[in-house]
Design a protein that fits this description.
Elements (H helix, E strand, L loop, with lengths): L11 H11 L14 E7 L4 H13 L4 E5 L4 H8 L6 E4 L5 H9 L7 E7 L1 E5 L7 E3 H8 L21 E5 L4 H11 L10 E3 L2 H9 L4 E5 L1 H6 L4 E3 L1 E3 L4 E2 L3 H6 L6 E8 L1 H4 L2 H12 L1 H7 L7 H18 L12
Parallel strand pairs: 1-2, 1-3, 6-11, 7-8, 7-9
Antiparallel strand pairs: 3-13, 4-13, 5-9, 5-10, 11-12
């Protein structure tokens, strides 16, 4: 199953879960858990489809729990998380020092759970038949803060003199942070004359609507829109490599493959409904990643996820918590 990224939370999923539960829905057909309460998650638009799918599946058998998932970007999500407004934050990059300091100042403790692997995908218009592969140096020439590249033939003389129109994630996006770091050598270092958006669908529309368009976002959004966009192979020195599940997992798609995270609050995990949701997320991580068309963790990564989550539960004192202890 694939989920298009809306600009609002997915509380409507609770209605679906209720309907399915009333009809005996769910993979096991078991009765409702009896848990109640609300789980609030925000953050990365890239991680959104994973967490949204986990929320939808969880609510099928836990209709008393409302899981709200937003997508304000990794940075925007951490702002809310470190103000105590959410129970967890989706992130397409590790937490920054200043974000960690903000959480510490607010007394919010947390842990990082790696839930999947992604390949940042550079995309061009379907009519672009020339830029099938770009080197990381060419990407830097296009996207560096001092770049004056304005047409494709300035990237490579063999390319046509087609104006380049650039689209990319907004500055609150973890994808923006990661891409600028590995391509331009400094997080946040980018030319500013591009069309930014925290909504990846806006980037899709921009690139698909412009012959000279170029953009980048998570691999799952390329897969969803492969009929209207071309993915560019990347050459970081060892030849052209296509973004794919296999190349992201085996490390050959460098430097644009990356882990994806969820940061739960330890205090939130002390609430049974939050602990139950994340236990479900961890237990079903592989099927959730596959269902959302992401790259599942390998065996060692999955073992590490389980260990990290168990450690968080221990910190929260949530192991063995009963539904009756749920916060109101």
């Amino acid at each position: 199953m694939r989920l298009a990224k809306p600009s609002i939370t997915i509380s409507a999923l609770a209605l679906t879960a209720l309907a399915l539960a009333a009809c005996g829905g769910g993979s096991s057909g078991s009765s409702d858990s009896g848990l109640s309460g609300q789980v609030a998650i925000d953050g990365s638009s890239t991680v959104f489809p994973l967490t949204a799918l986990a929320a939808e599946d969880f609510q099928v058998e836990n209709s008393g729990v409302q899981v709200k998932v937003g997508s304000s970007g990794t940075g925007g999500g951490f702002e809310k998380f470190c103000r105590g407004e959410t129970d967890a934050n989706d992130a397409s990059r590790p937490i920054k020092d200043e974000e960690a300091a903000a959480c510490a100042a607010a007394g919010i403790t947390y842990g990082a759970l790696t839930v999947a692997v992604d390949a940042i995908t550079v995309v061009v218009n379907k009519e672009n038949t020339w830029a099938t592969c770009l080197t990381t140096d060419q990407l830097a020439a296009i996207w560096s803060p001092d770049s004056v590249v304005g047409s494709w033939n300035e990237v490579d003389p063999s390319f046509p003199a087609e104006p380049i129109k650039l689209f990319g994630p907004g500055t609150d996006s973890g994808t923006f942070d990661y891409f600028t770091d590995v391509v331009n050598g400094e997080e946040g270092a980018s030319r500013t004359d591009f069309t930014p958006s925290e909504d990846d669908n806006v980037i899709v529309q921009g690139v698909s609507g412009s012959k000279g368009g170029l953009g980048y976002f998570g691999f799952t959004y390329y897969e969803e829109n492969a009929d209207s966009l071309n993915a560019v192979q990347i050459d970081s020195g060892s030849g052209c490599v296509s973004p794919s599940a296999a190349t992201a997992q085996d490390g050959t798609y460098t430097p644009l493959s990356r882990p994806l995270f969820v940061y739960p609050s330890v205090d939130a995990l002390a609430r049974p409904e939050v602990a139950a949701f994340f236990q479900f997320y961890v237990d079903n991580d592989a099927s959730i990643a596959e269902g959302a068309q992401y790259v599942p963790l390998n065996d060692s990564q999955r073992q590490q996820l389980e260990q990290d989550f168990d450690a968080l539960l221990s910190k929260a004192g949530a192991v063995g918590a009963s539904p009756s202890a749920a916060s109101q």
